[in-house]
Amino acid sequence: MSLTAQKTWIQVWDPLVRYGHWALVLAFAIAWLSAEDEAGGPDQFHVWAGYVVGVIVAVRVIWGFIGTRHARFSDFTYSPKTALRYLADLPRGRARRYIGHGPAAAYMIVALLVCLTVTVATGLLAYGESGKGPLASAGGLVIAQVYAEDHESRPENGGGRGGEGGDDFAGDVHGALADITLGLVTLHILGVGLASFMHKENLVGAMFSGRKRSEDEG
């Protein structure tokens, strides 16, 4: 690599961020496409993909506190005012270019992590009793049993209908959150496309290589 190239390009995203990002994309896509089998229940691929999503999200949250500079949450903490200003300036070509995650991306990351976490949690609650997935029998049954016992102990719930109603409710929330997450993913893709065009850089390619133009080249 020449001296000029070294000054022009800098390494921004570490391997864990890059590989974790694309692994999460793949796992969520598999979970979405295999949401139901022919019997109307969760497909085996759906359950396994859900566990993978949960693990990746957990690792990313931990890495957000102990990881490399641009992977840490502290590197992309912005006020709502800054994010709104960025969103207003971006279509007009006046938005500041950030080496790491910009304000809009920062809020999108938090929204996706929260939605994915709750989606996985409600999936465990709704589908744990089916016995699918490596943790379903150990984790899902415990969660479902605790939920059922809690509802059976309340007179207003009419005794034995607590567990089944809980599963129905969790399943509805699980599906709704999956839809919301897909909507956020769509907005994220559109935002990346717009930012790539306005800042004249390939942000998708940067998430593969980990490299971006140096700040003085922005």
Describe the sheet with the most strands: 2 strands, antiparallel
CATH fold type = Fumarate Reductase Cytochrome B subunit
Oligomer: single chain
Any idea what the radius of gyration is? Answer: 21 Å
Number of helices: 8
Q: Overall 3D geometry? A: globular
Highest-level CATH class: Mainly Alpha
Extended strand count: 2
Low-confidence stretches: 1-5, 157-166
* Helix-strand sequence: HEHHHHHHHE
Count of individual domains: 1
Query: Major sheet: order of its strands?
Result: 1-2
Q: Helix fraction?
A: 55-70%
Query: How far is it from the N-terminal to the C-terminal residue, by CA?
Result: 21 Å
Structural class assignment = mainly alpha
- CATH architectural name: Up-down Bundle
Mean pLDDT: 82
Q: What fraction strand? A: under 5%
Write the layout of secondary structure elements.
Layout: H1 3-8, E1 9-11, H2 15-33, H3 44-66, H4 80-89, H5 103-127, H6 136-152, H7 162-199, H8 203-209, E2 211-213
Antiparallel strand pairs: 1-2
Helix pairs in contact: 2-3, 3-5, 5-6, 5-7, 6-7
Structure in a nutshell:
67% of the residues lie in helices and 3% in strands. By secondary structure, the chain is mostly helical.
